[in-house]
Amino acid sequence: MEITYASINEIGKRPCQEDTVGSCIYGKEALFAVADGLGGHMSGDLASRKMIEQVLAGFHEKCDPEVFFPEVFAEGNRQLCLLQDAHHTPNGMKTTLACAVIKEDTIYGAYAGDSRIYIFEKNKMVFRTLDHSVPQMLVNAGELDEKKIRRHPDRNRLLRVLGDRDRESSPQEIPPYYMRKSAAILLCTDGFWENILEKEMEKTLKTAKDPEEWLSRMKKIVKRRGKMKKQDNYSAVCIWVFLK
Length: 244
Description:
Strands 2, 3, 4, 5, 6, 9 and 10 form a seven-stranded antiparallel β-sheet that branches. This protein has a five-stranded antiparallel β-sheet with strand order 1-12-11-7-8. It has helices at residues 44-58, 65-87, 134-140, 190-193, 198-207, 211-226; strands spanning 2-10, 19-26, 29-38, 94-95, 97-103, 106-112, 116-121, 124-128, 172-173, 177-178, 182-188, 234-242. It has six helices and twelve strands. By secondary structure, the chain is an alpha+beta fold.
């Protein structure tokens, strides 16, 4: 198996960077993660960084995703609550998290919040996570067209994040995805996906020669769309997997 990847971690037009990106490869096993902190300066950035550190520390060779995801989410949530106590910010230091583990011919994933995991095969999107957000809930209930999620006034109202003492913080795991010959994976924060459509992800993937070029082409679209507004932090990891 061959794994190649590229990542970005851009501040946008915000005063501080609250996104964090992480990656770790052990031979034929790999972990990739993105987190988007909530709570403002010196709060959201600490939360996302702490969570990514926790995820990377918990990952190891021959890791069992079914055990890894619940353990690392629970411990990460506990660490964030301790940080909140230490900084006297019980309502701050929260974060989203999306992480993917690649083992042999299978992609595993887990997430909380509205940072997303996309999977593509033959240049077509075959899977994406459903956000833990108010607009996504309305879509699921048939009360909102999915195309309107990106501009919904309640788009930033999240129903599940890490560091929340009052709501569920356990991971939502995606069904294991069994690759055939190859796959492309995109993990990204909301500042990235809200400024690019899935059809554009597919179009740029189709003509890219490697993950770096794919990400570069998508970044141009994201940056152009965010130019005329207060662009959020935006982060992404593009991974290509080829089975041998």
